[in-house]
Amino acid sequence: MKKSMWILLISLFVVFSFVDIMLLMNTKVSDILGALFLGAIQSLIVFAGVLIIILLVKMIKKIYDKLIIS
Hints:
The protein has 70 residues and is an all-alpha fold.
């Protein structure tokens, strides 16, 4: 599961950074670095949401399993 999380995070970073760089016109090195930084921040925000959903599903599954066993 850790490997798939890393793949998800890296692919989100690539997509967001690529989109941000494609939106730039008359680019400078600082603009590209800014787009990469923005892509990293956007990736972390989306990844945090995905992690919260995964943790909630695991928590609900544990509660459901306890109710079934009882």
